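Dear Dr. H.,

I hope your travels went smoothly. While you were away I took the liberty of generating a structure for the chain from your last submission, since the lab meeting agenda had it listed for discussion. I wanted you to have the full record in hand beforehand rather than looking at slides cold. The sequence, exactly as received, is reproduced here:
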Amino acid sequence: METEPVTIEGRNDFAQWAIERARAIVAEQGGNLAIAARDMDERAIAECGNALGTAITGALLEVFDGLLPESGE
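The corresponding predicted structure, in token form, is as follows:
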């Protein structure tokens, strides 16, 4: 999932980013997981669950990386 860079200048900016990012992750990955669960497809449930976890981890790393100072500063 590719996103545009966002400048976070305070708690409110971060909260808004988190809400929007969570909404996008749930829309993309949560729907797939729900369909797999509805179909009772154990393999698809595991794959979709892993994809959801990967998306969440990616979002957390994305914001963490943004907190690190740029190299060369």
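Two observations you may find useful: Residues 27-64 form one domain. The chain has a mean pLDDT of 84.

With kind regards,
E. W.
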